[in-house]
């Protein structure tokens, strides 16, 4: 259709909407409107990351990016509904405030510095080994076995997956770190 | 215990019933109230879409019934709306109006939850003070019986939205055809058409539509026109945890609202009332109507809204001029283009 | 519930729609109160008085569910004759040592029962007893010890009579006095509760941290348990005591615990006992009766999951690879150890203690004294930036160049960027699928800990020959650790599915196990968390099941997977009467099918499916076999619901009203003001305030309680950075009554400063009629509500409520009191810089605060020091 044929006045005068209050005044963009969730490459089953009600979510993905997160109406827990925080999940995961790079602050430093991820993990591994050695307690003064380090502690877990908590507890316990805590205590 | 159909499911029956069919209308009622060939600017009108030129095969009129008696004030509707429609944050101000920091509908706020704190007499359920939103702090004078049970606190919450009037003055005055009646009977702004003239803003009897401060266009709730086209419910109704916001065919919603009202009255909540459901009111009934627990003013709603263009037909002498002007303006903006 | 769990609240609204009466009890009128049929305001910190009043009402009026109580609770069990009640000893139980309790006088007559939770290690009882060989006597032919009972419930020392005496003074008048709840309203609640309980009806209690964040937090829950057991509301549909937990997998992180005192599946971490072996551990932690009788199966399967082929029967399945505890190693103790220099390295993973933990200043002191700190989060939270813009920097107390902590901030992947399970508050595991790849350096915590572990293992392996024999021995648990998960993609993301399968467990042939009842102590099975065994039954990830709810029964068993064994209601044997019949048609849930000779119903029966109701165990039966056909509480050492807890709690077998650590009121119930066993830390940065009649208490005349808003989440790490949430609740505020505003000349929306002995914070004043003064103990009491979501970073910023709080803990679970404290409030914003310190010093001086303040009735029970420790390496470590 030639563009001028879409001129509303023309449609008005020739159609069922002589005053141009509906059908005749619709723009091409309005006619094309549809939910962007229809354009998703993939719809992925998920769970809300906020509280422990466990509302099911559907994550809509297009071109490798999250375009929308909605409640999953199939869930017997949530029946598709979300609270304001759950409704803000798309903003949470796509937030420009989220950091994408490691930040490093050296002792007594006054600013953040850049550090590549591999170096960071390697430095942390070195510090774990060193601290563990320096603070190792094999026994108490009576010779009772302790087999632990009191030099390394950890906090957090309630916002993580079970599998993550499991690897944390497993690795820490093997290292002999016992001061392992999360939000369940506080 | 056999899990039969959805309609009989003890937990999903109601949830699913709230979902619209999204089908084309099947009822026999056509555009009966609409005089042939003419447009009406006030009074009952059964099928605004038909009047706006949509064929008989257009969908049923869809709308919102907001039952404020079950609103928990969580604001999921506000967030879900902004997330879906990609509306920006519009102010980090603590207002002091109870938990309402949104204050009003606007170009980037299409749902607004009002919070009204009141003290009531528990026996009569009558207000013993005024709890208007925007009235600032409650009295700091300790009232008699402050630490007894003479009065109780009542906290009203209500999610406001564009009313999608049967007779929408914003649409009537729009010179560009940006504001139109949709096939669902709702009122939507076409932002590719809007030139930001702002005529619609004072025309709205509810103060809903607003000009965006940055891009200059007029914006308001579209009832998620894009989602409706895809068979989805609007974002706010989809999120609402307690079914305070119900979306569906307006006829069904009106019936359901009457039943709910009756139920509440039977339970002794005689203060419950419907607002905007009446096709004979000043705007021909709202496409988005409410069950309230107090006077509309208490929630910041006009008590007797009237379509501001009601008297337009009487101004017959000016009508032709107005129409011509409008047409020219449309032509100008269409050919010139906003972008 | 409407505030913090709005979507869960839909079911309350659904129940209300169907005729349920909703009662909301809270110091504040919240969005939940707005929906309730009845709102009952009470003084923060007085809930045990209210619950005790209800218990007394039920007992006195004979409203308890007699058949249920007689058959399913320990009402008939007789308690040791040395037991003395708080009613006899003016607020303390027998066995008080001055710094805690010797619990032996609380035991049952004739039998020592191990608790299913709480304090479990019974070393002294087992090895201090005349029968030290009991350790080796697991199972087989030893007669089981059974406590004495009196089925008529009339024996003066039976639990039922003790209960009656203990709560006799909890009258409506006392409730009115302590809680500020008038008698009319009390009766309204009590009558509704009783009318809605019994064969035909059940009542549920839902609670959150308003009940647990107290120095008597566990006893709050115990009080509710007693009430619900008396009314027959446990193990039945529509009943229960429902914990509404606040993080997506806080239940999971308790089940698979990143907690110091537990191993996966609530197996206790071993304590440091001389020559502790696996046998000794089992003997001190097992139960004679019930499923804890099989603890050896669970422990050995765990050790096998962790140390694989290296764990053999000959080496006690590497039991000695487990580190040993010596007391409290909870997070508050740890932070003090940071300040004192003992803790050098700290991982903070998705938590924000710099603003999110009580006495936030103390937390930051700890952070500032570390050698190294790893913070993993989505946003740049305050715990990562404390050295740059913490309050101590802003107020000029210190500067970045004085803080030696090395900080690694590692960006985390979001839930949409990784596979894994969350366990919700109903114990249900739900799988979330990875939707997109994380960006840049963002990684899952699974990735981080897997690759960190690999790196540490490979470094230790490579240095094998540099390290001496003792170091090599020390490295063995790490080097032998099973750590071989498949990875995928460019970033080598480990497979969460493989980890879940390891958690589930496998049999001798490496096939996924279907049930914890298949676990064995001979080393043939492996399971990383026995209660999760079955989540991968049939090699299917059952947490990922999403059969639509409407295509299922109302129990919806095919959505996700709930531990244990996909049961949706625990202890559901109690939903049937002793003969196995439903208590009523209306409340039928699980019952005995006499024809099929098995338990059946809407849910998976929480009982041996073929054990008939009339089953009686042999005298030498142990473990599950020792449970009678009428013992529904299968994890309990006697199979019964505990009205009285003979073990497991550090502060008494029954709940007793104590005032919070800081209260404007004197305890009028007895002269013991506070929980005498509570845990305190006497430190300069953690001073306590005087209470009640103590001089100086009037300096902090108001009660405050912290709370959450719907619009934010916890300390704000996942909400303050989001524009659509920040704009809805854009500023820190204090909620208070018009009366208090008038008394302190506070202006609506104006600034005010709240002051305690620890800190002073500013916020905007929100005057509201929703907060009303209470009459309590004859005086008018003002309460202030303080949300705790704020901190210096993000889109909406403000002072953190945790600056105000001191650290005073429940002794059993080491949880702090945040829900009832005292403070002062005054108009205007808080002073800056040195003046802030001056203000606090002035207040402390006015109240006469010393290191002993607030400790008068409780010696420092918590301050147990660690045992002397000798590093056998004698300082020969390289560094």
UniProtKB/TrEMBL annotation, chain A:
Cofactor or coenzyme needed: [4Fe-4S] cluster
Domain of life of the organism encoding this protein: Bacteria
Region of interest called Disordered, as start-end residue ranges on this chain: 16-39, 70-89
GO molecular function ontology, one term from the record: electron transfer activity
SMART domains: Molybdop_Fe4S4
InterPro entries in the cross-refs: Mopterin_OxRdtase_4Fe-4S_dom
Keyword Oxidoreductase belongs to the record: yes
Feature: compositional bias, Basic and acidic residues: 29-38
GO cellular component: cell envelope
UniProt entry keywords in alphabetical sequence: 4Fe-4S, Iron, Iron-sulfur, Metal-binding, Oxidoreductase
GO terms for biological process, alphabetical: anaerobic respiration
4Fe-4S Mo/W bis-MGD-type domain boundaries: 41-97
Record-linked SUPFAM superfamilies: Formate dehydrogenase/DMSO reductase, domains 1-3 (SSF53706)
Subcellular localization(s) per the UniProt record: Cell envelope
Entry's family note: Belongs to the prokaryotic molybdopterin-containing oxidoreductase family.
PANTHER family with a match to the protein in the record: FORMATE DEHYDROGENASE-O MAJOR SUBUNIT (PTHR43598:SF1), TUNGSTEN-CONTAINING FORMYLMETHANOFURAN DEHYDROGENASE 2 SUBUNIT B (PTHR43598)
This protein's name: Formate dehydrogenase major subunit
From TrEMBL, chain B:
Renumbered residue ranges of the record's region Disordered: 1-56, 127-146
Cofactor: [4Fe-4S] cluster
Alphabetic keyword roster: 4Fe-4S, Iron, Iron-sulfur, Membrane, Metal-binding, Repeat, Transmembrane, Transmembrane helix
Binding site for [4Fe-4S] cluster 3: 162, 165, 170, 204
Occurrences of domain 4Fe-4S ferredoxin-type (ranges): 62-92, 153-184, 185-214
Signal peptide from the UniProt entry: none
Gene Ontology CC: cell envelope
Short name of any one Pfam family annotated for the protein: Fer4_11
Compartments where found: Cell envelope
Record-given protein name: Formate dehydrogenase iron-sulfur subunit
TrEMBL record, chain C:
One GO process term, biological-process aspect: anaerobic respiration
Residue ranges, annotated region (Disordered): 119-153, 847-879
First-listed, main subcellular location of the protein, grouped into a coarse class: other
Compartmental location: Cell envelope
Residue ranges, compositional bias (Basic and acidic residues): 131-147
Domain Molybdopterin dinucleotide-binding: 703-818
Cofactor(s) recorded in Swiss-Prot or TrEMBL: [4Fe-4S] cluster
Keyword Transferase: no
Acidic residues composition bias: residue spans: 870-879
Molybdopterin oxidoreductase domain mapped to chain residues: 3-384, 410-451
One annotated GO molecular function: 4 iron, 4 sulfur cluster binding
GO CC terms of this entry: cell envelope
Keyword terms of this UniProt record: 4Fe-4S, Iron, Iron-sulfur, Metal-binding, Oxidoreductase
One Pfam entry name: Molydop_binding
Family the entry assigns: Belongs to the prokaryotic molybdopterin-containing oxidoreductase family.
Alphabetized PANTHER family for the sequence: FORMATE DEHYDROGENASE-O MAJOR SUBUNIT, TUNGSTEN-CONTAINING FORMYLMETHANOFURAN DEHYDROGENASE 2 SUBUNIT B
Protein name, per record: Formate dehydrogenase major subunit
């Amino acid at each position: 259709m030639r563009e001028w044929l879409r001129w509303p006045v023309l449609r008005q005068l020739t159609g069922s909407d002589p005053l141009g209050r509906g059908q005749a005044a619709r723009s091409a963009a309005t006619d094309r409107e549809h939910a962007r969730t229809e354009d998703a490459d993939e719809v992925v089953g998920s769970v809300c990351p906020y509280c422990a009600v466990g509302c099911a979510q559907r994550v809509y993905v297009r071109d490798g990016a999250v375009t929308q997160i909605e409640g999953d109406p199939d869930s017997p827990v949530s029946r598709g509904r979300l609270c304001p925080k759950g409704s803000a999940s798309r903003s949470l995961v796509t937030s420009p405030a989220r950091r994408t790079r490691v930040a490093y602050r050296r002792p007594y430093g006054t600013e953040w510095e850049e550090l590549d991820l591999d170096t960071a993990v390697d430095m942390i591994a070195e510090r774990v080994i060193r601290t563990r050695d320096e603070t190792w307690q094999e026994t108490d003064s009576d010779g009772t076995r302790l087999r632990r380090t009191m030099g390394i502690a950890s906090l957090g877990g309630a916002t993580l997956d079970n599998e993550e908590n499991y690897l944390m507890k497993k690795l820490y316990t093997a290292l002999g770190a016992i001061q392992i805590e999360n939000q369940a205590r506080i | 215990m056999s899990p039969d159909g959805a309609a009989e499911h003890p937990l999903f029956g109601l949830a699913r019933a709230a979902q619209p069919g999204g089908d084309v209308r099947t009822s026999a009622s056509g555009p009966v109230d609409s005089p042939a060939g003419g447009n009406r600017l006030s009074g009952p009108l059964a099928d605004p879409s038909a009047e706006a030129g949509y064929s008989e095969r257009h969908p049923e009129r869809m709308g919102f019934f907001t039952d404020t008696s079950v609103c928990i004030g969580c604001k999921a509707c506000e967030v879900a709306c902004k997330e879906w429609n990609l509306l920006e944050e519009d102010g980090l101000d603590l207002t002091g109006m109870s938990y309402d920091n949104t204050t009003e509908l606007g170009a980037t706020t299409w749902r607004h939850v009002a919070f009204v704190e009141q003290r009531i007499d528990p026996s009569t359920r009558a207000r013993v003070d005024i709890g208007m939103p925007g009235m600032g702090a409650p009295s700091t004078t300790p009232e008699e019986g402050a630490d007894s049970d003479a009065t109780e606190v009542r906290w009203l919450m209500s999610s406001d939205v564009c009313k999608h009037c049967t007779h929408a003055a914003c649409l009537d005055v729009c010179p560009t055809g940006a504001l139109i009646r949709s096939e669902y009977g709702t009122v939507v702004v076409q932002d590719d058409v809007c030139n930001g003239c702002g005529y619609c803003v004072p025309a709205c009897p509810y103060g809903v539509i607003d000009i965006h401060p940055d891009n200059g266009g007029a914006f308001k709730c579209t009832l998620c026109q894009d989602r409706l086209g895809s068979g989805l419910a609007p974002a706010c109704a989809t999120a609402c945890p307690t079914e305070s916001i119900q979306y569906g065919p307006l006829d069904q919603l009106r019936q359901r609202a009457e039943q709910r009202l009756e139920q509440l009255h039977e339970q002794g909540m005689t203060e419950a009332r419907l607002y905007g459901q009446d096709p004979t009111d000043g705007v021909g009934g709202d496409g988005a109507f409410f069950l309230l627990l107090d006077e509309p003013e208490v929630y910041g709603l006009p008590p007797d809204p009237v379509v501001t263009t009601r008297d337009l037909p009487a101004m017959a002498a000016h009508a032709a001029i107005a129409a011509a002007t409008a047409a020219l303006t449309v032509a100008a903006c269409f050919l010139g283009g906003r972008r | 519930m409407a505030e913090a769990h709005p979507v869960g609240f839909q079911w309350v609204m659904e129940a209300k729609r169907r005729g349920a009466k909703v009662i909301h009890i809270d110091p504040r009128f919240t969005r939940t109160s707005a929906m309730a049929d009845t709102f009952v305001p009470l003084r923060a910190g007085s809930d045990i008085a209210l619950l005790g009043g209800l218990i007394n009402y039920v007992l006195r009026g004979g409203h308890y569910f007699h058949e249920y109580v007689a058959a399913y609770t320990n009402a008939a069990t007789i308690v040791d004759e040395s037991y003395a009640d708080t009613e006899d000893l003016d607020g303390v139980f027998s066995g008080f040592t001055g710094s805690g309790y010797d619990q032996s006088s609380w035991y049952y007559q004739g039998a020592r029962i191990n608790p299913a939770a709480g304090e479990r290690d019974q070393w002294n009882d087992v090895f201090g007893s005349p029968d030290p060989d009991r350790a080796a006597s697991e199972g087989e032919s030893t007669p089981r010890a059974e406590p004495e009972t009196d089925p008529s419930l009339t024996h003066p020392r039976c639990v039922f009579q003790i209960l009656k005496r203990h709560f006799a003074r909890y009258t409506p008048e006392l409730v009115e006095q302590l809680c500020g709840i008038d008698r009319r309203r009390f009766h309204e609640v009590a009558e509704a509760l009783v009318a809605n309980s019994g064969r035909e009806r059940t009542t549920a209690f839902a609670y959150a941290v308003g009940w647990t964040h107290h120095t008597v937090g566990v006893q709050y829950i115990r009080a509710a348990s007693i009430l619900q057991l008396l009314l027959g509301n446990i193990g039945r549909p529509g009943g229960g005591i429902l914990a509404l937990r606040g993080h997506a997998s806080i239940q999971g992180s308790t089940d698979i615990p990143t907690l110091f005192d537990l191993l996966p599946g609530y197996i206790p971490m071993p304590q440091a006992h001389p020559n502790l072996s696996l046998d000794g551990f089992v003997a001190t932690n097992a139960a004679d009766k019930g499923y804890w009788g099989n603890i050896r199966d669970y422990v050995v399967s765990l050790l096998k999951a962790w140390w694989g082929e290296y764990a053999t029967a000959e080496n006690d399945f590497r039991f000695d690879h487990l580190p040993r505890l010596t007391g409290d190693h909870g997070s508050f103790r740890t932070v003090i150890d940071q300040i004192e220099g003992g803790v050098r390295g700290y991982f903070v993973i998705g938590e924000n203690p710099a603003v999110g933990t009580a006495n936030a200043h103390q937390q930051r002191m700890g952070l500032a004294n570390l050698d190294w700190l790893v913070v993993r989060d989505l946003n740049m939270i305050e715990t990562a930036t404390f050295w740059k813009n913490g309050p101590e920097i802003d107020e000029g107390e210190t500067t970045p160049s004085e803080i030696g902590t090395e900080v690694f901030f590692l960006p985390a992947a979001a839930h949409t960027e990784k596979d894994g399970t969350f366990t919700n508050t109903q114990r249900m595991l739900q799988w979330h699928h990875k939707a997109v790849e994380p960006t840049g350096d963002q990684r899952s915590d699974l990735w981080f800990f897997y690759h960190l572990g690999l790196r540490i293992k490979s470094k230790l392996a490579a240095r094998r020959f540099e390290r001496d024999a003792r170091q090599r021995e020390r490295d063995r648990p790490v080097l032998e650790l099973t750590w071989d998960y498949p990875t995928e993609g460019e970033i080598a993301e480990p497979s969460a599915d493989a980890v879940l399968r390891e958690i589930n467990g496998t049999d001798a042939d490496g096939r996924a196990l279907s049930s914890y009842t298949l676990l064995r102590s001979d080393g043939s099975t492996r399971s990383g968390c026995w209660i999760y065994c079955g989540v991968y039954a049939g090699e299917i990830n059952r947490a990922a099941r999403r059969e639509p709810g409407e295509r299922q029964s109302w129990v919806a068993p095919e959505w996700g997977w709930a531990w244990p064994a996909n049961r949706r209601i625990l202890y559901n044997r109690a939903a049937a009467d002793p003969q196995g019949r439903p208590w009523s048609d209306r409340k039928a849930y699980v019952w005995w099918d006499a024809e099929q000779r098995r338990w059946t119903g809407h849910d998976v029966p929480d009982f041996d499916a073929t054990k008939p109701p009339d089953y009686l165990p042999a005298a030498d039966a142990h473990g599950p076999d020792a449970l009678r056909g009428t013992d529904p509480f299968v994890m309990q050492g006697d199979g019964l619901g505990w009205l009285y807890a003979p073990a497991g709690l550090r502060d008494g077998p029954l709940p007793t009203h104590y005032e919070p650590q800081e209260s404007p009121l004197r305890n009028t119930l007895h002269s013991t003001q506070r929980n005498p066993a509570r845990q305190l830390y006497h430190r300069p940065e953690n001073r306590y305030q005087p209470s009640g009649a103590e001089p100086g208490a009037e300096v902090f005349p108001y009660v405050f309680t912290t709370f959450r808003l719907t619009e934010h989440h916890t300390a704000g790490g996942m909400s303050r950075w989001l524009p659509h949430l920040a704009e809805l609740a854009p500023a820190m505020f204090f909620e208070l009554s018009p009366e208090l505003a008038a008394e302190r000349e506070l202006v609506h929306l104006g600034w005010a400063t709240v002051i305690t002995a620890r800190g002073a914070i500013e916020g905007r004043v929100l005057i509201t009629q929703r907060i009303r003064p209470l009459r309590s103990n004859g005086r008018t009491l003002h309460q202030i509500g303080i949300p705790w979501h704020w901190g210096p970073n993000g889109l909406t910023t403000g002072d953190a409520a945790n600056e105000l709080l001191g650290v005073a803990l429940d002794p059993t679970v080491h949880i702090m009191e945040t829900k009832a404290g005292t403070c002062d409030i005054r108009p205007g914003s808080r002073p800056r810089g040195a003046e802030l310190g001056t203000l606090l010093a002035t207040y402390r001086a006015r109240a006469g605060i010393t290191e002993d303040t607030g400790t008068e009735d409780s010696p420092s029970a918590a301050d147990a020091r660690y045992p002397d420790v000798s590093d056998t390496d004698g300082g020969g470590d390289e560094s």
